[in-house]
Input
Amino acid sequence: SQQGEEDPQALSIQEGENATMNCSYKTSINNLQWYRQNSGRGLVHLILIRSNEREKHSGRLRVTLDTSKKSSSLLITASRAADTASYFCATGVTGNQFYFGTGTSLTVIP
Amino acid sequence: EPEVTQTPSHQVTQMGQEVILRCVPISNHLYFYWYRQILGQKVEFLVSFYNNEISEKSEIFDDQFSVERPDGSNFTLKIRSTKLEDSAMYFCASTSSGTEAFFGQGTRLTVV
Output
């Protein structure tokens, strides 16, 4: 399968703590994107990291990419209750296709 | 800010009926996609569309499915004869080459 897999499947933390989610994939990629989905809602793009990049920041988000290990991580610092959502990685492969992982369900407890 | 819009937000249809889900991608984007998400499950790729033709499709995208870009703005997904298992959230997305994909809010399809 070309889809990635997120780990853990579910994560529960206290507000203010950091949350780390991992994504592993199988094929070579052009880029990797992280999305967020609130329950029953659409997918919101968070950040894109290209295959020649190793780390990227956006506000409280930090994404790393290790192409040798075919893995990526998303770190959310100083989490808030509003960060409660499912987080998906999507691997961009040749031809502008991209495939979603299985998702991590994050619960931030106030 | 430009956005992808999908209509309707919710569609209820009888099994065996045809449905058309509509999407208006971002105007200067070149690549268009349909994904689906069965309740509580992962987001599954259905089809990608570029230069007025399908560039890739998944195993899910069988002969019951078709896509069309009937004019310069709309991108549609048609399911010819719906089945109960087609009930899902359907997402449309668009992108320029190599950039992030923007998703619509989805159409919740319920087949009864």
